[in-house]
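Morning F.,

Quick status update on the modeling queue. The single chain you submitted on Monday has been processed. Sequence for confirmation:
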Amino acid sequence: MGLTMLLLGLGGAVAFFGAAAWRVRRARPPQEIVESRHVTDLTEGRFRVVGRIGAMQTVSSAVDASPCVYVDVSEFRTFGGGALAQEVVREIRATPFLVDDGTGLVWVDPREAEIEAVTVQEDLGLTAERRLRVGEEVEVVGTFRRLEVESEGGPYRGVSSVWSVGADAHGAPRVSYRTEPEMVSAGDELAAFFRGAGVLLVAAGSLIALLVS
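Structure tokens below.
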């Protein structure tokens, strides 16, 4: 009876927080619509640019050693007979990079930006990594300003003028792998919540079974 009540309580908590998350999501304002421009057509102001990541320096992926400009890696340790996992290490490594849309260049510092990146996993999920790889297509949204640079070598030598992107009244600039509307699912956040809640219930049930066995 006690175990049944405990599981019912967990289920009620998940339902409660799910309803709260849904209400918060519905209360959010519509996603900002920002004018898209090619780099060659930029003026100083807030715009959206889509291009491919070009590296001046790189950091290595912890999963497959691929060259990246941003890596956010977490390592987890299981306990309770493998039923639960806890994050034990988190490391973020990043380096400024250029976004090339074929008409010009944008200089981006990921350490001062909001990053939305694909998550990859290994070791049965015990290592999870968000990353931006060299050559990957991304969108950059923020306030653009002309930046004078000197390049002594590399693939961008001879470029004397590029654009930088920075923070404004809307917050930090955003870099995202979602470059097309169909890459955004309206239920992404809510679905992720319920997936996590389902894992929580399964893990709790497994842990209880271990404790009473």
